[in-house]
Amino acid sequence: MSTTDISLHKDVHAGHDDHHDDHDHDQSFIEKYIFSQDHKVIAKQFLFAGIFWAIIGGTFSSLFRMQLGFPEATFTFLEPLLGKWVDGGKLNPEFYLALVTMHGTIMVFFVLTAGLSGTFSNFLIPLQIGARDMASGFMNMLSFWFFFLASVIMFYSIFLETGPAAGGWTVYPPLSALPQAIAGSGAGMTMWLVSMALFIVSQLLGGVNYITTVINMRTRGLSMTKLPLTIWAFFLTAVLGLLAFPVLFSAALLLIFDRSFGTSFFLSDIYVAGEALTHTGGSPVLFQHLFWFLGHPEVYIVILPTFGIVSEIIATNSRKPIFGYRAMIGSMLGIALLSFIVWAHHMFVSGMNPFLGSVFMFLTLIIAVPSAVKVFNWIATLWRGNINFTTAMLFSVAFVSLFISGGVTGIILGNSALDIQLHDTYFVVAHFHLVMGSAAFFGMFAGVYHWFPKMFGRMMDEKLGYIHFWITFASVYLIFMPMHYIGIAGFPRRYYTWTGFDVFNKFMDMNSFITIVAVLAFAAQFFFLFNFFYSIFRGRRATENPWKSNTLEWTTPVNPGHGNWPGPLPVVYRWPYDYSKPGAPQDFIPQNVPFSQTQSSNLPHERDDFE
């Protein structure tokens, strides 16, 4: 770092010190916890909102799995809860489609995008780069409140008389573009589109903030090649979101125009109940292109943050340096680039030119290379490590397992000839639930267990964590491995009932088994919920650095105030993975320890570049 860079950092952070000194006055409850501009409080707001939505999304999946697992059964106990949507103990078919739609929307966008990135990007970026706060605390606050407003609208739509949106979570036209098509295409779909527009504004506000903070507010000595992999992951996730989400925003806007203003961007030659509509010239395939241009980067917007979280936790609990640090950064850069040019592998059956399909197939298979680099590096980090099996570590190792299992089936689906046979079967459902859904949830759980002491100043109970982990881990494989099998047999997704098909009736017992395990997996999450909320108030008090980790967040007080460090900002001298270094008295050396204090373990090139 040049002298000019150092002086610039000093000037920038001196200004921030003054800013936070001015805010040491007593704040009201509303100022401190509701409309807070402290990145740590905003992170907790995203976390609590994500937990709320995860409960809603999990409940919806349990409801429609009961229909799929026991299609001939009657569920009269649901009538007081769901009212007219349960008739004679049977789930209404349109409401079934609404449950599937809302489950996918909630889990992908509200939990695994806002809940995951909103929590950990907000919480860790300033702490791990040695900044007082985000570049713009006000913009950060707005990003949460736009998400909150989106959440309120989406939640309210569940209680509409005509029901919530029911066009599938991908909301393909013409079903989503014609309010008269089904009940769930009416007001519920309008509210879905408005909610998603507000959600995208939230993500863009957050993304601009994350990128600006990482580029401009790193503390003295912290070059890009000394950043923890968590920060690289959050930074690239924000870049993906900033480039991809506006495309979905435009698709939602054009869909609103088609629904409400008589345009025909996505509609052409449509008949409803024998009546010819006036729409001509549009193409529903155009919507698919716009949706999946966001939809495939979205897969990595969901999974990239967990790459960073898991890398950090595996290195910390293996007591080893992360294997191939620069290769890990390079693989994330490769994944980020390739994620933008593979979107049409979701559209192999849309009638595209086979040559074009082969191009997208080739690019899709290539993306397996940087993904494999990450897997090999995680395994190499674990190899012969002095492993501490904390709950966070168990979830991280299980994440690697799920990523491998789901990734292998992704290679199968990336082949267009095979995908055409397996498209819209349970094989696809099993694939993306393993590689994106379950793996991302495991990464999120790992992050919560690992950084809970820094968030709340207390420890979560490890025994309850182990129970939560083992039931969840076993359940995930018992749910989705059988789904691959019935998917290969052609079992279709999205069908409300399949009892009219003799070939599918052979899988009655397997479907029932999957449903029982799915309900068990959902019930297991209440071990986590109890552990989480009980530990906030009654958990064992945490020490400053309970995991003996190297990154800067563990140099703050146990309960850091707004501004994070009460004194001067820490100075960074080394990379974040100096674990078990030969010659060092301890098996970890924090980033802010100068090389002059570790002469016995220094390598020839390691020296203090500044005082």
UniProtKB/TrEMBL annotation:
<feature type="transmembrane region" description="Helical">
    <location>
        <begin position="355"/>
        <end position="380"/>
    </location>
</feature>
<feature type="transmembrane region" description="Helical">
    <location>
        <begin position="392"/>
        <end position="414"/>
    </location>
</feature>
<feature type="region of interest" description="Disordered">
    <location>
        <begin position="590"/>
        <end position="611"/>
    </location>
</feature>
<keyword id="KW-0679">Respiratory chain</keyword>
<dbReference type="GO" id="GO:0009060">
    <property type="term" value="P:aerobic respiration"/>
</dbReference>
<feature type="transmembrane region" description="Helical">
    <location>
        <begin position="95"/>
        <end position="125"/>
    </location>
</feature>
<dbReference type="GO" id="GO:0015990">
    <property type="term" value="P:electron transport coupled proton transport"/>
</dbReference>
<dbReference type="GO" id="GO:0022904">
    <property type="term" value="P:respiratory electron transport chain"/>
</dbReference>
<keyword id="KW-0472">Membrane</keyword>
<dbReference type="InterPro" id="IPR000883">
    <property type="entry name" value="Cyt_C_Oxase_1"/>
</dbReference>
<feature type="transmembrane region" description="Helical">
    <location>
        <begin position="464"/>
        <end position="492"/>
    </location>
</feature>
<dbReference type="GO" id="GO:0020037">
    <property type="term" value="F:heme binding"/>
</dbReference>
<feature type="transmembrane region" description="Helical">
    <location>
        <begin position="426"/>
        <end position="452"/>
    </location>
</feature>
<feature type="transmembrane region" description="Helical">
    <location>
        <begin position="512"/>
        <end position="534"/>
    </location>
</feature>
<keyword id="KW-0479">Metal-binding</keyword>
<dbReference type="InterPro" id="IPR023615">
    <property type="entry name" value="Cyt_c_Oxase_su1_BS"/>
</dbReference>
<dbReference type="InterPro" id="IPR036927">
    <property type="entry name" value="Cyt_c_oxase-like_su1_sf"/>
</dbReference>
<keyword id="KW-0813">Transport</keyword>
<feature type="compositionally biased region" description="Polar residues">
    <location>
        <begin position="593"/>
        <end position="603"/>
    </location>
</feature>
<feature type="transmembrane region" description="Helical">
    <location>
        <begin position="231"/>
        <end position="257"/>
    </location>
</feature>
<feature type="domain" description="Cytochrome oxidase subunit I profile">
    <location>
        <begin position="29"/>
        <end position="573"/>
    </location>
</feature>
<feature type="transmembrane region" description="Helical">
    <location>
        <begin position="46"/>
        <end position="64"/>
    </location>
</feature>
<dbReference type="Pfam" id="PF00115">
    <property type="entry name" value="COX1"/>
</dbReference>
<keyword id="KW-0812">Transmembrane</keyword>
<keyword id="KW-0408">Iron</keyword>
<feature type="transmembrane region" description="Helical">
    <location>
        <begin position="290"/>
        <end position="311"/>
    </location>
</feature>
<comment type="similarity">
    <text>Belongs to the heme-copper respiratory oxidase family.</text>
</comment>
<protein>
    <submittedName>
        <fullName>Cytochrome C oxidase</fullName>
    </submittedName>
</protein>
<keyword id="KW-0249">Electron transport</keyword>
<feature type="transmembrane region" description="Helical">
    <location>
        <begin position="137"/>
        <end position="159"/>
    </location>
</feature>
<keyword id="KW-0349">Heme</keyword>
<dbReference type="InterPro" id="IPR023616">
    <property type="entry name" value="Cyt_c_oxase-like_su1_dom"/>
</dbReference>
<dbReference type="GO" id="GO:0016020">
    <property type="term" value="C:membrane"/>
</dbReference>
<feature type="transmembrane region" description="Helical">
    <location>
        <begin position="189"/>
        <end position="211"/>
    </location>
</feature>
<keyword id="KW-1133">Transmembrane helix</keyword>
<feature type="transmembrane region" description="Helical">
    <location>
        <begin position="323"/>
        <end position="343"/>
    </location>
</feature>
<dbReference type="GO" id="GO:0004129">
    <property type="term" value="F:cytochrome-c oxidase activity"/>
</dbReference>
